[in-house]
Protein backbone atom coordinates (compact mmCIF):
# COMPACT_ATOMS: atom_id res chain seq x y z
CA UNK A 1 0.00 0.00 0.00
CA UNK A 2 1.25 3.49 -0.84
CA UNK A 3 0.60 6.91 0.64
CA UNK A 4 -1.79 8.85 -1.60
CA UNK A 5 -1.56 12.62 -1.80
CA UNK A 6 -5.02 13.88 -2.69
CA UNK A 7 -5.33 16.79 -5.06
CA UNK A 8 -8.22 19.13 -5.81
CA UNK A 9 -11.38 17.45 -7.02
CA UNK A 10 -11.97 17.52 -10.78
CA UNK A 11 -13.84 20.51 -12.18
CA UNK A 12 -16.38 18.13 -13.70
CA UNK A 13 -17.34 16.91 -10.22
CA UNK A 14 -17.52 20.46 -8.91
CA UNK A 15 -19.85 21.41 -11.77
CA UNK A 16 -22.09 18.40 -11.14
CA UNK A 17 -22.46 19.42 -7.49
CA UNK A 18 -23.38 22.93 -8.56
CA UNK A 19 -26.05 21.42 -10.79
CA UNK A 20 -27.55 19.63 -7.82
CA UNK A 21 -25.65 16.34 -7.51
CA UNK A 22 -26.21 15.06 -3.97
CA UNK A 23 -25.54 11.33 -4.23
CA UNK A 24 -22.85 9.18 -5.88
CA UNK A 25 -25.46 6.89 -7.43
CA UNK A 26 -26.36 9.75 -9.78
CA UNK A 27 -22.78 10.32 -10.93
CA UNK A 28 -22.23 8.89 -14.41
CA UNK A 29 -20.89 9.54 -17.90
CA UNK A 30 -18.10 12.05 -18.49
CA UNK A 31 -18.13 13.51 -14.95
CA UNK A 32 -17.64 10.04 -13.44
CA UNK A 33 -14.91 9.28 -15.95
CA UNK A 34 -13.18 12.53 -14.99
CA UNK A 35 -13.17 11.40 -11.36
CA UNK A 36 -11.75 8.01 -12.36
CA UNK A 37 -9.00 9.65 -14.41
CA UNK A 38 -8.11 12.01 -11.56
CA UNK A 39 -7.92 9.16 -9.04
CA UNK A 40 -5.74 7.12 -11.39
CA UNK A 41 -3.39 10.07 -11.83
CA UNK A 42 -3.08 10.54 -8.07
CA UNK A 43 -2.37 6.87 -7.49
CA UNK A 44 -0.05 6.31 -10.42
CA UNK A 45 -2.47 3.75 -11.88
CA UNK A 46 -2.20 1.41 -8.90
CA UNK A 47 -4.99 0.02 -6.74
CA UNK A 48 -5.13 1.95 -3.47
CA UNK A 49 -5.07 -1.28 -1.48
CA UNK A 50 -3.14 -4.04 -3.26
CA UNK A 51 -0.98 -1.97 -5.68
CA UNK A 52 -2.05 -3.96 -8.73
CA UNK A 53 -1.92 -2.08 -12.03
CA UNK A 54 -5.31 -0.58 -12.90
CA UNK A 55 -6.55 1.48 -15.83
CA UNK A 56 -9.62 3.41 -16.96
CA UNK A 57 -10.96 0.16 -18.44
CA UNK A 58 -11.12 -1.69 -15.11
CA UNK A 59 -10.95 0.91 -12.33
CA UNK A 60 -13.56 0.91 -9.56
CA UNK A 61 -14.33 3.87 -7.30
CA UNK A 62 -14.14 2.97 -3.62
CA UNK A 63 -15.36 5.05 -0.67
CA UNK A 64 -12.83 4.88 2.16
CA UNK A 65 -15.61 5.62 4.64
CA UNK A 66 -18.14 2.99 3.45
CA UNK A 67 -21.23 4.50 1.89
CA UNK A 68 -23.52 1.61 1.06
CA UNK A 69 -27.09 2.98 0.95
CA UNK A 70 -28.23 0.39 3.51
CA UNK A 71 -25.42 1.15 5.95
CA UNK A 72 -26.31 2.88 9.22
CA UNK A 73 -23.44 5.31 8.53
CA UNK A 74 -24.73 6.22 5.08
CA UNK A 75 -24.23 9.91 4.33
CA UNK A 76 -25.05 11.14 0.79
CA UNK A 77 -22.57 14.01 1.19
CA UNK A 78 -19.72 11.57 1.79
CA UNK A 79 -20.61 9.62 -1.35
CA UNK A 80 -19.60 12.62 -3.47
CA UNK A 81 -16.75 13.85 -1.24
CA UNK A 82 -13.68 13.52 -3.45
CA UNK A 83 -11.39 13.00 -0.46
CA UNK A 84 -13.44 9.91 0.39
CA UNK A 85 -12.83 8.36 -3.04
CA UNK A 86 -10.10 5.90 -3.99
CA UNK A 87 -9.36 4.01 -7.19
CA UNK A 88 -9.27 0.25 -6.67
CA UNK A 89 -9.06 -2.96 -8.69
CA UNK A 90 -11.78 -5.54 -9.25
CA UNK A 91 -10.72 -7.38 -6.10
CA UNK A 92 -10.08 -10.67 -7.92
CA UNK A 93 -13.82 -10.80 -8.59
CA UNK A 94 -13.58 -12.38 -12.03
CA UNK A 95 -11.33 -15.25 -10.93
CA UNK A 96 -12.35 -15.66 -7.30
CA UNK A 97 -15.44 -17.87 -7.32
CA UNK A 98 -15.55 -17.83 -3.52
CA UNK A 99 -15.71 -14.95 -1.04
CA UNK A 100 -12.47 -16.03 0.64
CA UNK A 101 -10.68 -15.52 -2.68
CA UNK A 102 -11.77 -11.89 -3.04
CA UNK A 103 -9.49 -8.99 -2.08
CA UNK A 104 -9.54 -5.24 -1.53
CA UNK A 105 -12.98 -3.57 -1.40
CA UNK A 106 -14.71 -6.69 -2.73
CA UNK A 107 -13.66 -8.56 0.40
CA UNK A 108 -13.87 -5.57 2.71
CA UNK A 109 -17.52 -4.73 1.96
CA UNK A 110 -18.52 -2.09 4.57
CA UNK A 111 -16.03 -2.98 7.30
CA UNK A 112 -14.33 0.13 8.75
CA UNK A 113 -10.56 0.39 8.32
CA UNK A 114 -7.80 1.64 10.57
CA UNK A 115 -5.15 1.74 7.86
CA UNK A 116 -5.58 4.86 5.75
CA UNK A 117 -3.85 5.44 2.39
CA UNK A 118 -4.21 9.20 2.95
CA UNK A 119 -2.31 9.07 6.25
CA UNK A 120 1.46 8.75 5.85
CA UNK A 121 1.91 7.68 9.48
CA UNK A 122 -0.56 4.86 8.94
CA UNK A 123 1.21 3.68 5.77
CA UNK A 124 4.59 3.79 7.54
CA UNK A 125 3.30 1.09 9.91
CA UNK A 126 3.07 -1.38 7.03
CA UNK A 127 5.95 -3.75 6.39
CA UNK A 128 6.65 -6.84 4.30
CA UNK A 129 8.36 -10.19 4.56
CA UNK A 130 10.79 -11.69 2.06
CA UNK A 131 8.08 -14.10 0.88
CA UNK A 132 5.88 -11.17 -0.15
CA UNK A 133 3.61 -11.15 2.89
CA UNK A 134 2.22 -7.71 3.78
CA UNK A 135 1.86 -7.16 7.53
CA UNK A 136 2.08 -4.74 10.45
CA UNK A 137 3.03 -4.77 14.12
CA UNK A 138 -0.08 -2.67 14.73
CA UNK A 139 -2.81 -5.21 15.54
CA UNK A 140 -5.64 -3.22 13.95
CA UNK A 141 -3.71 -2.54 10.75
CA UNK A 142 -2.63 -6.18 10.61
CA UNK A 143 -6.30 -7.14 10.77
CA UNK A 144 -7.10 -4.70 7.96
CA UNK A 145 -4.38 -6.08 5.71
CA UNK A 146 -4.70 -9.78 6.34
CA UNK A 147 -8.40 -10.22 7.11
CA UNK A 148 -10.54 -7.28 6.00
CA UNK A 149 -8.73 -6.57 2.71
CA UNK A 150 -7.38 -10.14 2.37
CA UNK A 151 -4.14 -8.92 0.79
CA UNK A 152 -2.28 -12.17 1.43
CA UNK A 153 -4.94 -14.27 -0.30
CA UNK A 154 -3.18 -17.15 -2.16
CA UNK A 155 -5.79 -17.21 -4.94
CA UNK A 156 -5.03 -13.60 -5.90
CA UNK A 157 -1.27 -14.12 -6.44
CA UNK A 158 -0.67 -10.82 -4.64
CA UNK A 159 1.85 -12.30 -2.22
CA UNK A 160 3.67 -14.06 -5.06
CA UNK A 161 3.74 -10.91 -7.19
CA UNK A 162 5.04 -8.74 -4.34
CA UNK A 163 7.84 -11.25 -3.81
CA UNK A 164 8.65 -11.19 -7.53
CA UNK A 165 8.85 -7.38 -7.51
CA UNK A 166 11.10 -7.45 -4.46
CA UNK A 167 13.31 -10.21 -5.86
CA UNK A 168 13.78 -8.29 -9.12
CA UNK A 169 15.18 -5.30 -7.25
CA UNK A 170 17.43 -7.48 -5.11
CA UNK A 171 18.76 -9.19 -8.23
CA UNK A 172 19.38 -5.86 -9.98
CA UNK A 173 21.42 -4.65 -7.01
CA UNK A 174 23.33 -7.93 -6.82
CA UNK A 175 24.13 -7.81 -10.54
CA UNK A 176 25.47 -4.27 -10.25
CA UNK A 177 27.42 -4.88 -7.06
CA UNK A 178 28.22 -8.62 -6.99
CA UNK A 179 29.62 -9.67 -3.65
CA UNK A 180 29.86 -6.04 -2.55
CA UNK A 181 28.01 -3.77 -0.18
CA UNK A 182 25.59 -1.58 -2.11
CA UNK A 183 26.54 2.10 -1.66
CA UNK A 184 24.03 4.23 0.20
CA UNK A 185 23.92 6.69 -2.71
CA UNK A 186 22.81 3.91 -5.06
CA UNK A 187 20.06 2.83 -2.68
CA UNK A 188 18.88 6.42 -2.34
CA UNK A 189 18.83 6.90 -6.12
CA UNK A 190 16.82 3.75 -6.56
CA UNK A 191 14.43 4.79 -3.79
CA UNK A 192 13.75 8.10 -5.54
CA UNK A 193 13.14 6.20 -8.75
CA UNK A 194 10.44 4.02 -7.20
CA UNK A 195 8.90 6.92 -5.27
CA UNK A 196 8.38 8.77 -8.55
CA UNK A 197 6.00 8.12 -11.42
CA UNK A 198 7.20 7.27 -14.92
CA UNK A 199 4.77 8.43 -17.59
CA UNK A 200 2.18 8.93 -14.86
CA UNK A 201 2.63 5.46 -13.39
CA UNK A 202 4.23 4.01 -10.31
CA UNK A 203 5.92 0.64 -10.63
CA UNK A 204 3.48 -2.15 -9.83
CA UNK A 205 3.75 -3.21 -6.16
CA UNK A 206 6.06 -0.23 -5.54
CA UNK A 207 5.23 -0.23 -1.83
CA UNK A 208 7.20 -3.39 -1.06
CA UNK A 209 10.22 -2.06 -2.98
CA UNK A 210 10.13 1.32 -1.23
CA UNK A 211 9.88 -0.43 2.15
CA UNK A 212 12.87 -2.66 1.32
CA UNK A 213 15.08 0.20 0.08
CA UNK A 214 14.30 2.38 3.10
CA UNK A 215 15.20 -0.57 5.32
CA UNK A 216 18.51 -1.11 3.51
CA UNK A 217 19.38 2.60 3.68
CA UNK A 218 18.77 2.62 7.43
CA UNK A 219 21.22 -0.26 7.82
CA UNK A 220 24.08 1.37 5.89
SSE inventory with pairings:
Elements: H1 11-18, H2 29-42, E1 60-63, H3 76-79, E2 85-88, H4 93-96, H5 104-108, H6 120-123, E3 126-128, E4 134-136, H7 139-148, H8 158-176, H9 184-195, H10 206-219
Antiparallel strand pairs: 1-2, 3-4
Helix pairs in contact: 1-2, 8-10, 9-10
Could you describe the 3D structure shown?
The protein has one domain (11-219). The protein has 10 helices and 4 strands, in the order ααβαβαααββαααα. It has helices spanning 11-18, 29-42, 76-79, 93-96, 104-108, 120-123, 139-148, 158-176, 184-195, 206-219; strands spanning 60-63, 85-88, 126-128, 134-136. It has a two-stranded antiparallel ribbon with strand order 1-2. A two-stranded antiparallel sheet has the order 3-4. Helix 9 (184-195) packs antiparallel against helix 10 (206-219). The mean pLDDT is 95.
- As residue ranges, the low-confidence spans are none
- What structural category characterises the helix and strand content? mainly alpha
Largest sheet: 2 strands, antiparallel
Overall morphology: globular
Helix content: 40-55%
- The overall strand count is 4
Describe the strand arrangement of the main beta sheet, using strand numbers.
1-2
Distance between the termini: 25 Å
Short description:
By secondary structure, this protein is mainly alpha-helical.
Amino acid sequence: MLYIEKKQEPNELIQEKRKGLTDYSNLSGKPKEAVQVSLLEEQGCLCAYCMRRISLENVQIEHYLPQHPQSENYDPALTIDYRNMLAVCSGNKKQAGKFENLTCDQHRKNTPLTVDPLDRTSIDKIKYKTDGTICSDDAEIEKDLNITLNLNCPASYLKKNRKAALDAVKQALHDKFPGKKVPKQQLERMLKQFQAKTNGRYAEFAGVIIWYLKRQIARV
